[in-house]
Amino acid sequence: MREKQRAIAIVVVMLAAIFSGCASNPDVQEVQPDPLPLWYDGKAKEEIIGFVNEISDFFSDSLVPPEKRIAVFDNDGTLWPEKPLYFPLEFIFHLTEEMAEEHPEWKTEDPFKSVLEGDYTALTAEDFPALIEATHGGMTQTEFYRRARKWLSKAEHPRFEEKYKKLAYTPMLQMFDYLRKNGFRIFICSGGTVEFIRAYSEVAYGIPPENVIGTTIDTRFEITEKGPVLYRTGVIVPPLNDREGKPVNIQRHIGLRPIIAFGNSDGDIEMLQYTAEGRGPGLAVLIHHDDVEREYDYDKGTEKALELAEENGWTVVSMKDDFAEVFPEKEEEEKVEPGNQ
Amino acid sequence: MREKQRAIAIVVVMLAAIFSGCASNPDVQEVQPDPLPLWYDGKAKEEIIGFVNEISDFFSDSLVPPEKRIAVFDNDGTLWPEKPLYFPLEFIFHLTEEMAEEHPEWKTEDPFKSVLEGDYTALTAEDFPALIEATHGGMTQTEFYRRARKWLSKAEHPRFEEKYKKLAYTPMLQMFDYLRKNGFRIFICSGGTVEFIRAYSEVAYGIPPENVIGTTIDTRFEITEKGPVLYRTGVIVPPLNDREGKPVNIQRHIGLRPIIAFGNSDGDIEMLQYTAEGRGPGLAVLIHHDDVEREYDYDKGTEKALELAEENGWTVVSMKDDFAEVFPEKEEEEKVEPGNQ
Questions:
Q1: CA proximity to B39, closest of B167, B175, B177
Q2: Residue B178 in 3-state DSSP?
Q3: H helices of B100-244, where?
Q4: Distances (CA, A) of A203 to A63, A165, A209
Q5: B275, A227 in Cβ contact below 8 A?
Q6: Residue from A235, A255, A122, A98 nearest A187 by CA
Q7: DSSP B141
Q8: Residues B108-120: pLDDT tens digits?
Q9: How far apart are CA B55 and CA B71, in angstroms?
């Protein structure tokens, strides 16, 4: 009889093994006590999780089938900082400096002169198309990616003393994971130039290039001696991916209305309205920069969006009170002896 | 001892259960004797499988990491027929007829007059922007999808007596599965208007709307009394997604050079060149319509592409000799008694 008992014990162990095997299958959703540990408990976290539960609930009237679960995220100020300057602008200034040698006339010609002198306050919105055309025009697409990656591998944020591509807000990266687990496809929808973001989106955010929508610089296809090449013309394809340009480009690119949108400034208003104010479920989330200690504290450029959030009941995320962490723990730099490089 | 033997037997059975459990895990790739049974064995199939094996082989110099495995497919003539008329054109003609009541002047005004009289041969390439503007302009995006789906749910092919959306070539659908299993992301890149394809791509091809690139009709965002709305302006966003417009729009949309492209006509040449003639591995495949029995037999509009295929060693697929099947088996129509509806 002891043999029989042992046989039963073995079966029990094997069954346990089978079931634990099933549970480790990534297709089977695990029960998670807190899907967003990098977010403090509070109204914002509750509203986001509440919305996701609601649209995923098979018995809810608000059920959205997985095919239609689209979430869009602004980039600068929503996924990483936008101060002291938009990082994509810094890259344009960097290209201007790098190319200035071939263009001695830039020393006396604006807007180049102002950029080379570091007088960015002298620049107006109208100057940027000219700067983009001068710095991006004629470059092959491959060369552009190479230069963007090179800059991103070196350029550091002046205050945080960290590479830009390592400044993604970790609670937002966790939000991506959480939404993906709930069947969402995630897109960036940024006013920045699309290929600059594509140069690092996979590495910094785990988002493939085709899931990035941005302001588009046109290209021209040509068969050269070296084979087929795409040249950047430097000309912006209208509309700029800002304000009402965002819903238009979301339609061009995705073809579906998103049901979740995250933004942080007045430039995101139309995207948030398009997502949350139409028919059917939609969640608009506004990231509010109110954390002077860990990041920045400002309302400028977000006044109208904050008003509309109040009016329409959009979710407002306080970086101070809702983010348990802002940036990843800094890695210890490998120390290189100066004479040893 | 018999008890012990029984215990061992039970363990063996349980182990077998565990291993068969693992094998049915979809993440574990199964050994498949023929990954493309709907393709006859031959040069085309060999070249395609050979290329996929090569770029997936960890020890190959041609290894392409999964992040860069992009495959693009033309639509009309590559994934479904394009005769007797491009199906997207038929839809534009259908809209023209449907809207003619509100536009009595169309009876005497070309190009509308020719369309309403069914005299499609009278139309030139220049007429289409006017037809698109008249039939798409002012319509909301939601209404456009509704009309496209309604038409697609009814319209039948005159020769095959089957709904258009059921005329996807089954060997091509199998190709999608095969490439997906090998880590590819799949995009349609069609000269047709993008939202027409998006109206059925998920149902007919299993391709989500964001993976469709096509000729884009612009939209305009507006806040109306009923909430935020996208109106179709009816104006085409240049370039047309044809010829050199294809690589340009692939860059705008995906941001990566594809490594596999399937096309069937001269309009696909630049996409095939961009994919296969640059640096690094690339496979260009041309579907050749040479099957008068099961589909159509024609070279018109493909002459130059066939020449280039020969010259550059592109893979040519003979629908007659390489497709083991063209369309899915027809479902038996449910017979409804005429007096019983």
A1: B175
A2: helix
A3: 112-116, 127-136, 141-154, 170-181, 194-198, 201-205
A4: 33, 8, 10
A5: no
A6: A255
A7: H
A8: 999 999 999 999 9
A9: 13
Nearest to B21 among A21, A220, A277 (CB): A21
In this complex, is the C-beta atom of A136 within 8 Å of any C-beta atom belonging to chain B? no
Q: 10 Å Cβ neighbour count for A232?
A: 23
Answer whether A198 touches B (CB < 8 Å). yes
Q: Which residues of A touch B242 (CB under 8 A)?
A: none
CA dist., res. A181 & res. A269, Å (int): 27
Q: How far is A144 from chain B (nearest CA, A)?
A: 12
- DSSP class of A297: B
pLDDT reading at A294 higher than 70: yes
Collect all residues with Cβ–Cβ distance below 8 Å to A73 and sequence separation of at least 6.
Answer: A79, A172, A186, A187, A188, A189, A261, A262, A263
| CB of B7 closer than 8 Å to CB of A6 | yes
Residues of chain B found within 8 Å of residue A219, distances taken between Cβ atoms: 247-248, 251-252
Of B18, B210, B251, Cβ closest to residue A255: B210
What letters, b where the CB count within 10 A reaches 16 and e where it falls short, cover B191-223?
bbbbbbbbbbbeebbebbbbbbbbbbbbbebee
**SS3 state at B264:** coil
Each residue of B324-333: pLDDT tens digit? 999 988 766 5
The candidate with the shortest Cα–Cα distance to A213, out of A237, A194, A231, A233, is: A194
Residue B64's alpha-carbon distances to B51, B53, B72, in angstroms, are 11, 11, 16
Cα–Cα distance, B330 to A299 (Å, whole number):
62
Cis peptide leading into residue B111 (ω within 30°): yes
At residue A156, φ and ψ (nearest 5 deg) are -120, 150
The CA distance from A75 to the nearest CA of chain B, in Å, is 17
For chain B, what's the residue count?
Answer: 341
Residue in B17, B26, B209 closest to A254 by CB:
B209
Distances (CA, A) of A24 to A37, A58, B18, B185: 21, 24, 13, 26
What amino acid is encoded at B8 in this protein? Answer: I
**What is the Cα–Cα distance from B100 to B114, expressed in whole angstroms?**
12
What would the two tokens of residue A313 be?
A: 């009941």
Could you tell me which of B155, B183, B181, B179 has the C-alpha nearest to residue B80?
A: B155
pLDDT digits (tens, 9 = 90+) for A127-175: 988 999 999 888 999 999 999 999 999 999 999 999 998 999 999 999 9
Q: DSSP strand E in A147-198: where?
A: 185-193
| pLDDT attached to residue B32 | 60
Q: What is the dihedral of CA A267, A320, A179, A257, to 10 degrees?
A: -20
Contact A148, A199 (CB under 8 A): yes
Chain B residues touching A194 at Cβ < 8 A? 252, 255
The string of pLDDT tens digits covering residues B204-244 is 999 999 999 999 999 999 999 999 999 999 999 999 999 99
Q: Which residue has the tokens 């942080």?
A: A264
Distance CA B176, CA B35 (A): 11
Within 212-231 of B, beta carbons closer than 8 Å to A belong to 212, 216, 218-221, 223, 227-230
Percentage of chain A beyond pLDDT 70 is 87
B69 CB within 8 Å of a chain A CB: no
**Secondary structure (3-state) at A91:** helix
What contacts B82, CB < 8 A, 6 or more positions away?
B76, B264
Alpha-carbon gap: A67 to the closest alpha carbon of chain B (Å): 8
Token representation of residue B211: 């993976």
Q: CB of A17 within 8 Å of any CB in chain B?
A: yes
